[in-house]
Design a protein that fits this description.
0% strand; 51 residues; single chain; mainly alpha
Length: 51
Amino acid sequence: MRYALRQFELHYNLHRPHQAIDQAAPLRAAAEPLARAQISHLDVRRRDRLG
């Protein structure tokens, strides 16, 4: 249970976008907006956090 809670905490603070801070994560600075041409070439990957 502690492992699952820690993974949630890390995701919430390091990866999850927050609307109140322009879709940035609380512990990371907001990135510059992407140009329209860059959006069509995104490399999106997912990771299984809880096994």
